[in-house]
Design brief:
- Keywords: DNA-binding.
- This is Regulatory protein TetR.
- InterPro entries: Homeodomain-like_sf, HTH-type_TetR-like_transc_reg, HTH_TetR.
- Helices cover 80% and strands 0% of the residues.
- By secondary structure, the protein is mainly α.
- Helix 1 packs across helix 2.
Length: 207
């Protein structure tokens, strides 16, 4: 027999997920700063009190939103990589397609607003440190398999790309051209630059 307490917990968990999904869409389309907690409550047709009982401020809600986005991306690539034997070029192309689909709905204001929230920035920096280690292993496998040039300093390239994106946000380039256009035009330029002839040929067959 299910107790009232269990039902209440289930409802709260379901509502929490609905809030995160709704807030993410609103943050994406309007930017973070422009979305008030009152707006989220109104969109969900719940009281402000109910919303604040689950997420007591916007920064906490935003942190849950970006964590969910990362979890979705991680799960997507986990399933993609175990589907069949994949190469490093397969992984790059799938990453490109995934990000192009996701960035299509992101307002430039969403990206530029993120730095306003310290706990989100701190979490993203921690994720970036983990990603650095994963990226190093990935690039080494690409070198071993003949897709990436062995003379390239991939640690430098990875860090430079990160700094370049940060500068693009701060300088207003992302706001002017849009997240998707910046990602589309810059990503393939980097990728082609560090691929061997074998890597470029594999790339050309897929794009």
């Amino acid at each position: 027999m299910i107790s009232k307490g269990d039902k209440s917990t289930d409802y709260r968990q379901q509502l929490s997920q609905r809030i995160i999904e709704t807030a993410t869409k609103m943050f994406f389309s309007r930017g973070i700063k422009a979305v008030k907690m009152d707006d989220v409550a109104a969109r969900l047709a719940i009281s402000k009190r109910t919303l604040y009982e689950i997420f007591n401020n916007k920064e906490k809600l935003l942190l849950h939103c970006v964590k969910k986005l990362k979890n979705e991306k991680d799960e997507h690539f986990k399933q993609f990589m175990k589907g069949q034997k994949r190469t490093e070029i397969d992984a790059i192309i799938e990453f490109y397609r995934f990000q192009m689909n996701r960035t299509a709905s992101i307002s430039p204001h969403f990206v530029s607003d993120l730095h306003r929230y310290p706990s989100v920035v701190s979490w993203m920096n921690e994720v970036r440190r983990t990603s650095d280690r994963i990226a190093q292993d990935f690039f080494q496998k690409g070198i071993d398999n003949g897709y990436f040039r062995k003379e390239v300093n991939f640690d430098l390239i990875w860090k430079f790309a990160d700094v370049a994106m940060s500068n693009a946000i701060q300088s207003g380039i992302v706001e002017k051209y849009g997240v998707q256009q910046v990602f589309k035009n810059v990503t393939m330029l980097y990728v082609r630059g560090f691929c061997t002839l074998k890597g470029i040929e594999a790339l050309e067959k897929m794009i």
